[in-house]
Each structure stands twice: as structure tokens, then as C-alpha cells.
Amino acid sequence: MDALDRVVKPKTKRAKRFLEKREPKLSENVKNAMLIKGGNANLLVTQVLRDVYALKKPYGVLYKKKNITRPFEDQTSLEFFSKKSDCSLFMFGSHNKKRPNNLVIGRMYDYHVLDMIELGIEKFVSLKDIKNSKCPEGTKPMLIFAGDDFDVTEDYRRLKNLLIDFFRGPTVSNIRLAGLEYVLHFTALNGKIYFRSYKLLLKKSGCKTPRIELEEMGPSLDLVLRRTHLASDDLYKLSMKMPKALKPKKKKNVSLDTFGTTYGRIHMQKQDLSKLQTRKMKGLKKRPAERITEDQEKKSKRIKKN
């Protein structure tokens, strides 16, 4: 029996909608994240997962029960949770003597682990410890990365790409100024990653452009890089492949610069500028002496030819 014959058709409308969401699409859905608590997670790791879930809402699933698994040794449980919740991003929190206050952040491709990076928590300040107003649920953040390591080291470069994938939220076509409400700032310095969250305050400045102030709202994390499980270059390129229907068609003789300015190239035949008709002005008229010298030069050329 072929694989097509073994496909079971949905019996209810709910099952049909569920399968339609999982079908391949040209423009993929918003990536959801699952936040999983390990079997030996302490209070600090649990609170970190809760705070990250508060930033990810409504594009996240928080599992409150403890799950005894080790992502770097056994990935089958992560694949099971990914298929069950239809999430392509995950964060796993655990704690033990060898790796205290441990976080594993990663992403899936075709329900298999693509990238996975382990981070250690050295310092943590929770959302509830900072007594400031918070942003509403579902707000799209602005992401800022500081530090040369994010562009030089391969592990940090993948970590930057992973963090962008994890926190960027839905893709939007238009942005309004009042919608820019909070910033996630990541700094790589001296082998550590500093994660800070700020609320954006628009103050009166006396002109059209408002004055901007940043107010820390939490959470705040000091992280250190531990183990990594990175996809091969071929698999990574395959996961980033764009469908042909979404690729922009190349236009002849049209180019774009780094700032998005469009330039066009026009092909013309070689012109004789001496025959070009220009605007007649008194200041450009030739003097009688210049005309006499030109006539003499023409006569001398004719005599030489003869």
C-alpha cells in the first residue's frame, strides 16, 4: 500500500482546520514557541520561563508540568512536543549541580531539531521585581544587538539569528510611531550576553518629533554561553530556502543600493554634441574674429585634401 493510501482524511471541521494550518504555505505562519520546564527545574528557572512567556504571548505555550528529558542527549521528546503544539521554537529550563540555572533555546525544521544553544543564567531580575508599567500582550518588540562577537564568532552569529527568530513576532507591513512600545537589547561583552528589556516612553519635545526615553521594565538576564548543537551548512541553507513564487523577478537595467534607492540604466546611441541644438543666448554667440579664424581653418583643410 502506498503512503498516499494510508493518509486518513479528517472527520470533523476542527481536524480539517488543524491540518490546513500545518499545510505548506508560501508565507509561513507566525512562529510559536513552547517553554518547557525540566524535571529538576528550580524556582529561578521557572520564573525565567514565565517571564519569557509573558513577552511571547500570544505566540507561545507554557508547559507547567515538569518533563524529564535532556535535549542534547535525547531529542525525541522535543520533536513530540513540537508536533503536538505545532511550535517551531522552544526554550527548555533545567537545573543541576553540573549545569546550574540552565536554559536551552532552539528551533525546529520539519519537526526535527535544527539549532540548539545552551545558556547559563548568572544573574536574573524578574518582571515583577521591577515596579513599572508593562507593555500590553502581543506587542511587537524592537531588537538591538551590540557587540562585535555577534558578527565575528560563528556561535554568537547563530545565537543572534536564533534570538531574532525567537522574539521578532509577526511580520507587519506598516508601523506607526505609537506602536513602538518596548525594546529588547542584547549585548555580547567579555564572553557574556546581557539581556535587557526597556519600555519606550514618548515625551514632549516642543516639535513634531517626540523625545524618547527608555525605562527598564524587565526581565533582566546575565547569560553565559555553554554548549551548542548547530545544523550543518547544507541543512541550514535548505531551511532558509525561499520558494520560487516569492523570489522577486529580476528587472533588466534596474538596480537598488543599500538604502533602497532605485537606479535605472538607459542605453543610447553615441551622439554628436556639436550638432546638438541648444538654447540661443547672446552671451554664447561667436564673435566676428572667431568666425574668421574658423573659416580660415576650414579653407586650409580643403586645400590640404586637394
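Next protein, fold it too.
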Amino acid sequence: MAMKSLSFLAVLSLLALTLPLAIASDPSQLQDFCVSANTSANGVFVNGKFCKDPKLVTADDFFFSGLQNARPVTSPVGSTVTAVNVNNLLGLNTLGISLVRIDYAVNGQNPPHTHPRATEILVVEQGTLLVGFVTSNPDNRLFSKVLNEGDVFVFPEGLIHFQANIGKGPAVAFAALSSQNPGVITIANTVFGANPAINPTILAKAFQLNPRTVVDLQNKFKK
């Protein structure tokens, strides 16, 4: 019995020693990369934002107004995304959350994209949306659903997902994301609008397209 108690105490001691190491893991990235600088002359950035002196913080640092207002939709894909993140609501710094409003024109869509640093939970405020996400290789399984007002759908972190307005009128959705700066990679813009451009031969083979078609697509997405 004494031997069992000793073994149990040994396990507890090991957990006590290793738990602080587990907690001290690296934080999640808040930007695409953070290359180390040998000297301050190379410029100093942090993985996040500098903190304001708490004595100078006001309620306005935690406040954003106007998200109830519809946004004009002028993009070729038929949607406008209004983000509330650490760049325009400074109090979000270090809190690991942000918000977006998405306005969809009739037949508009928020095209296939991914958030490299966040899971997204979306609720439909107005209209009807077809939404979905695709799992990673090799299965590439599509999970899709038609959402009406009040319906909620979750897009796991890093997976390609989309929303399309399939209703007869404009649509509105709100989404929360599990990062103060989730990032967004729109697949078509990234692949065909890269700067400098990706060699068309590479894309032609990847997408099984004629190189001339790839060049045409690249011209459409030139910034």
C-alpha cells in the first residue's frame, strides 16, 4: 500500500513539474510572420499591439458604433465585409476575439476563403444563405447547409469556407472570430492575384487549365 502511495505521489510531483512548461507554450500568431531582428535598427514589431497605460484607458477604447447600418455592396463578388478587430477597436488587444458584419447583394457571395488564425461562428440576421466548408486533404469533404434568419453555423479554424446569398433579396450576417486579428486569405485573389504573379505554367498544371486562361484570370485579379 505504501508503494502505491509513493507511486501516486511521484506522478503528482511529475505533473506539478511539467504543468508550468505546458502552460508556457508559444502564443498563437497574430500576423502572417514575425522575423527576428538582430538590432533595434532593423525595426521592432510585436506579435500583437503595444499596451496603453491602464491609467489612460477610457470606455471609448472598448466601444465601436454603427454596425447596425447596412453597407453598400460594390465588389464584383456581391458582398461587403465590415470588420471590428484590434485595428479599429483597440480594447480587443490580447482578448482573442473579433467580429464582422457581412452584407450580401442578391446573388452575392463571400467567396471561398480561410482564416489562418481563427474559428468563425456565423448567425444570419436577414435573408437566406448557402454556407459550407471543406475539410483538408485527402478527403476534401464538403459540409454545407442552407441557413435562414436566426440560424447559426461554425467554420473551423483554417478551413476553406464560403457563404452565398440564395434568397430573393439582400442578406445580412454577423460572425465572431476567435482572434483579435484572424486574417483572411481569399483563394481566388491569393492564387491569381499574387504579387508578383505566380508563373502561369504552375497554375495551369495545378488547375488543369490552358495557360492562356490562367493569364486571363491573373489579369482580372491584378491589383
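About the second fold: The longest helix spans residues 2-23.
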